[in-house]
């Protein structure tokens, strides 16, 4: 059962990362076109709006993959001096804390998106609706939270740390 959930989670994480990569590609193209346009006296109108909103997709789209591959900052200063069980408990607690933090981010941004919808908020120049990007950020943060919670469950039940490729 856990393997099926992990496979589904990995698929969603890969989709999230692919969306983030597409956002990065769009951002590079926009920046390149804007720089070239500025050189000829004709910058892209609203490029700052596009870059700002695309950055949300780039950063939070890749967040779940960053956790999945162990890319978040970790301090292992005392890891060698602690017993294995204590290190495992610390890993479980840190995964749960991360899940709670990202769940809080998802909730707060979702509430902000509701306000943006109610007030019809948009970007300054292009009038892109902010709630679409906020809802996307909320979904990406929720996916990261689920990934971290799943990692905590895997560590608890099987001792397997998905970030290290452990098969214990």
By oligomeric state, this entry counts as single chain
Straight-line distance between termini: 17 Å
Bulk shape:
elongated
Poorly predicted runs: none
β-strand number: 0
Taking the sheet with the most strands, its summary is:
none
User: What series of H and E elements makes up the topology?
Assistant: HHHHH
Structural class: mainly alpha
> How would you state the average pLDDT, rounded?
93
Q: Give the helix level as a range of percent.
A: over 70%
Strand percentage lies at under 5%
The radius of gyration computed from the alpha-carbon positions, rounded to a whole number of angstroms, is 19 Å
Please write out the topology.
Elements: H1 2-39, H2 47-61, H3 63-68, H4 84-119, H5 130-157
Polypeptide structure, described:
This protein is mainly α and 168 residues long. Helix content is 73%, strand content 0%. It is built from five helices and no strands. It has helices at residues 2-39, 47-61, 63-68, 84-119, 130-157. Helix 4 (84-119) runs antiparallel to helix 5 (130-157). The longest helix is centred in the N-terminal third of the chain and has 38 residues, at 2-39. The model has no long low-confidence stretch (mean pLDDT 93).
């Amino acid at each position: 059962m856990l393997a099926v959930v992990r496979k589904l989670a990995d698929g969603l994480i890969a989709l999230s990362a692919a969306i983030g990569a597409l956002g990065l590609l769009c951002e590079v193209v926009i920046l390149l076109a804007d720089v070239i346009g500025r050189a000829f006296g004709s910058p892209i109108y609203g490029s700052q709006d596009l870059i700002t909103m695309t950055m949300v997709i780039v950063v939070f789209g890749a967040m779940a993959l960053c956790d999945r591959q162990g890319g978040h900052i970790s301090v292992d200063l005392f890891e060698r001096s602690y017993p294995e069980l204590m290190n495992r408990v610390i890993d479980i607690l840190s995964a749960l804390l991360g899940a709670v933090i990202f769940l809080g981010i998802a909730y707060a941004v979702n509430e902000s998106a509701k306000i943006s919808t109610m007030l019809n908020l948009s970007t300054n120049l292009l009038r892109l609706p902010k709630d679409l990007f906020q809802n996307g950020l909320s979904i990406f943060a929720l996916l990261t939270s689920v990934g971290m919670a799943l990692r905590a469950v895997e560590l608890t039940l099987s001792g397997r740390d998905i970030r290290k490729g452990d098969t214990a």
